Amino acid sequence: MDFVKELDLLIRSRYPVIYVRTSEEERACNVAANIARAQKKNLLQWSSTEGLRLVESFHGGLMPGGDELRQPVAALEAILQDTGRAIYVMKDLHAFLDDRPTVRKLRDLYQNLKRSYKTLIILAPAKKIPPDLEKEVYFLRMPLPDTEMLRKLLLDIARTLRQDGRVQIAHADTLVPHIADAALGLTLDEAERVFFKAIARDATLSEVDIQYVRDEKRQIVQKSGLLEYYEAVEDLGKVGGLNQLKHWLRRRARAFEPQAREYGLPAPKGLLLLGVQGCGKTLAAKAVAGSWGFPLLRLDMSRIFGSLIGSSEENMRHALEMADAVSPCVLWIDEIEKTFSGIESSGMSDAGTTARVFGSFLTWMQDKKGSVFCVATANSVSRVPPELLRKGRFDEIFFVDLPNAEERREILTIHLQRRRRKADAFDLAALTARSEGFSGAEIEQAILSAMYDAYDESREVSTRDILRALEAAVPLSVTMREDIEALREWAKHRARPAT
Ligand SMILES: Nc1ncnc2c1ncn2[C@@H]1O[C@H](COP(=O)(O)OP(=O)(O)O)[C@@H](O)[C@H]1O
Ligand SMILES: [Mg+2]
Predict the structure, then answer these.
(1) What is the pLDDT averaged over residues 239-266?
(2) pTM for this structure?
(3) CATH number belonging to the domain at 3-141, selected among 3.30.457.10, 3.40.50.300, 3.30.190.30, 3.30.70.250
């Protein structure tokens, strides 16, 4: 349900204490004010600096005043005594929720509010509800603004500036939706600042502002510290081999269009790429974004767990929420087994945090309806939690093996061209044969190492140099033979070959 409707309904159904997680205080206050107006209730706001203030008044009731109401306990007592019908929005209360008297007062208040037409709304940027209040408090997240809201904001700004005669805005009707969409994922405040900047820097609203807003957004998402944002970089042309995987992806390139939903198809959920190290899993993950023209968001688990702000679970939810808002996008989790391998022991080692963070990720994957395509990679199966491999999570699990002869030829060609060489100037047949058992990464390394040698001797690199480099290297397929065999054995029945 839409957030405003849900909050309205909760208040009408007399939920006494509602905890709203949001970093957008002003927007949340406006929502509360609209609801208060519609329900003909007084609206009061509390913050630790201003105390309790009356914002909207429909009838008699509490007329707060006095410095002592800056104390949370005193403010809660005043609310308890209030005889009117009112909504109280409290801004900094979460900072006092480890204070015994405040928690006590809230519990007393709960009993009183239940039998009244008064509602307490706690606004907080993170979920932090003490265990002995969990039953009393209804928790709700305010989602980021949707397209509709952003369009309205941009139109308002454009209208104001145009009336001032300060800016030129042509084709507003066609541009506004695109620019608004580019801002999805931002808070209303952030979007407002970005829109103003976009218009102010050249006194017009034009095509180039779409990219400008995207660039600004990238910086803002980056600053959240939870996701890394890349504009689409690689494309599938840079990936050698993996034809089955490429085919699968091409077949789904159009599946994110709204027409596909009308056709009766769900949006693709995502892929797990599992297999031998250095064979292009990470590269392919990046290329998916590039080939579909989606931004790539990297979900880096060390940031989720390591961030100083918010709990790990909240961070995970927030990151997923941002991804949802930025969609269509590719959400990429590299080497997923590294983070989620400790789940079974999580109860003992970290009080279950890893397990809960993993749980919220799984739930999100399961229920996901938006156009976030999730690509996860893994280098080993033994440490991948079995829940991830179950049907309904990823659309498909692809096994990425060492490249076969045809693929090695493609990889050689790609990397020679990337180093400004014409591939047909080399004996590709010999190189292909000699590189058997080498991964894509190792083939790339051999080419580079040959080029360093040749450059040092001030001459052009030749087939012989590369052959020699291949000769000198011991590929992982030799040192890790048993691991690779085990991986293949596992994948035989459980994953689809990428080749
Ligand atoms: N199939 C491939 N085609 C082209 N280059 C490859 C391929 N596989 C590996 N490489 C090269 O090796 C590098 C490392 O590969 P990567 O994608 O990180 O492997 P993985 O994630 O499977 O361990 C890539 O950036 C790319 O330069
Ligand atoms: Mg990798």
Answers:
(1) 93
(2) 0.80
(3) 3.40.50.300
